[in-house]
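User: I'm putting together notes for a lab meeting next week and I want to include a structural view of one of the chains we've been expressing. I don't have a solved structure, so I'd like a prediction I can at least talk through. The sequence is below, exactly as it appears in our construct file.
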Amino acid sequence: MSAKDTFDSFDSLFAGARVVPRRDFLASGVALLATASAGEALAATGSTATDQDRDHMRQAIELMRKAGVVEKTGGPFGCVIVRDGQVLAATGNSVLRDNDPSAHAEVNAIRAACKKLGAPNIKGATMFTSCEPCPMCYSTAYWARVGKIYYAAA
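Assistant: Thanks for the context. Below is the predicted structure for the 154-residue chain, given as structure tokens.
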């Protein structure tokens, strides 16, 4: 196969691909603060934060403190994944502990949730994370079919 054939093959493969900017991926979810202001309307969804949403965000922030300050297993990041009212996973960053640059809280939580469900995705789940996810974590959430992402700090 010639180089031209290879490029033509790739062109046809990706001809129907749609590029979605990472911020647009969050159209169904916006920053959710763990403070009293968290009860304000969530602009992108038109809904309001519930007490349960605030509890999940508080848990993510507690995991952030544990990972980054108390146990120092990685950077100060925490994540909770919920589906149908059930917490599927709650983890912190473990980059330093695991010597793994991909062991961000969000990726760790997605891995744990998928393992718990015995499935390669967590379609329709909601992710609560202490900080806005990096591009790697956004991508992982996208491929895991996370339905909404709420984050406390941009």
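A couple of points you could mention at the meeting. The mean pLDDT is 80. The two ends are 47 Å apart (CA to CA).

User: Perfect, that's what I needed.
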